[in-house]
Specification:
There is one protein chain. By secondary structure, the chain is mainly beta. It has a single domain, classed as Metal Binding Protein, Guanine Nucleotide Exchange Factor, Chain A, CATH 2.170.150.70. The protein has two helices and ten strands, in the order E-E-E-H-E-E-E-E-E-E-E-H. The chain has a seven-stranded mixed sheet with strand order 6-7-8-9-4-3-10, covered by helices on one side. The radius of gyration is 14 Å and the shape is globular. It starts with a strand and ends with a helix.
């Protein structure tokens, strides 16, 4: 992973910490009901580019609809720093807003019409 930048992040209370390796500074802003309410800005990475550093014991999981997405959140502060997305169930989806420092401006934000997920998912997977 020599051409990748490493960043750390976590939840609000600090119980959950992770490291992610980034090669492409592009993130997705989804307008589906859960992403809108959480304010999630998506950085989807393969499993070898994500490392949970601490907090597995305080993570809780929420599922709905198909049950494929595993929406994890800190059971102490309630923040959703990452999850296993329905679109890429073997990968990790990191909330760019949960990275340490103010890194959001480094990313090109691409809108995604998740409110009409079935009609648009092929755009996200490509």
């Amino acid at each position: 992973m020599t051409d990748l930048d490493a960043y750390e992040g976590g939840c609000h209370c600090g119980a959950v910490r992770f490291r992610v390796f980034v090669d492409k500074y592009e993130a997705t802003d989804c307008n589906c009901s859960i992403c809108t309410k959480k304010g999630f800005v998506h950085l989807i990475v393969p499993p070898d580019r994500f490392e949970l550093l601490q907090g597995s014991e305080v993570l809780s999981t929420y599922t709905f609809n198909t049950g494929t997405a595993r929406h994890t959140f800190c059971s102490i502060c309630g923040i959703h720093p990452f999850y296993r997305p329905r679109s890429h169930p073997d990968g990790y989806d990191v909330n760019v807003r949960c990275l340490d420092g103010n890194l959001l401006s480094r990313f090109r934000i691409v809108p995604f019409d998740g409110a009409h997920w079935e009609d648009n998912i092929d755009r996200l997977r490509s």
